[in-house]
């Protein structure tokens, strides 16, 4: 569990660093920060681990909306990071939330 939490945290930080200061990028950064805080505000490892999908789904929804509305075009590096943070969590929950999390990977136009 700690490995998954650490991996997701690292990837969220890496993802955040790929954005600059345009209005839409600042909104994306806020959503990334909100997901990170949501995961890490909890005390126990189990709570943090269980919070990951609840934190990532709203982030992914926002990213999907930004892409579909053509407000933002994600770079190949950003796409890679998105897939990696979803994979880090979904492989440990194979079959349960993995399908939900990986479905959002299809948003890239």
Secondary structure: elements and pairs:
Elements: H1 2-16, H2 23-40, H3 45-68, H4 76-90, H5 98-103
Describe the structure.
This protein is mainly alpha-helical and 109 residues long. It has one domain. It has 5 helices and no strands. Helix 1 runs parallel beside helix 3. About 9% of the residues have low confidence.
Gist of the model:
This is Bacteriocin immunity protein. This protein is mostly helical and 109 residues long.
Give the helix tally.
Answer: 5
Query: Which ranges are low-confidence, i.e. pLDDT below 50, for 5 or more consecutive residues?
Result: 95-104
Percentage of residues in DSSP E strands: under 5%
Structural class: mainly alpha
- Radius of gyration, taken over Cα atoms and rounded to an integer in Å: 13 Å
Count of spatially separate domains: 1
- What's the SSE pattern? HHHHH
**Could you give the count of β-strands?**
0
Give the overall shape, derived from the CA principal axes: globular
Helix content: over 70%
For the residues shown, what is the average pLDDT?
Answer: 87
Alpha-carbon distance between the termini?
A: 33 Å
Q: Major sheet: size, sense and barrel closure?
A: none
Protein name: Bacteriocin immunity protein
Kindly list the characteristics that best describe this protein:
109 residues; mainly alpha; Bacteriocin immunity protein; globular; single chain; 5 helices
């Amino acid at each position: 569990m700690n490995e998954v939490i650490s991996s997701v945290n690292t990837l969220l930080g890496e993802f955040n660093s790929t954005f600059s200061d345009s209005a839409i990028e600042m909104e994306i950064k806020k959503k990334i920060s909100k997901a990170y805080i949501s995961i890490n505000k909890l005390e126990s490892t189990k709570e943090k681990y269980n919070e990951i999908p609840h934190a990532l789904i709203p982030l992914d929804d926002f990213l999907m909306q930004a892409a579909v509305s053509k407000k933002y075009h994600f770079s190949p590096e950003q796409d890679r990071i998105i897939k990696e943070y979803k994979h880090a969590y979904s492989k440990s929950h194979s079959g349960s939330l993995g399908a939900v999390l990986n479905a959002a990977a299809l948003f890239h136009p």
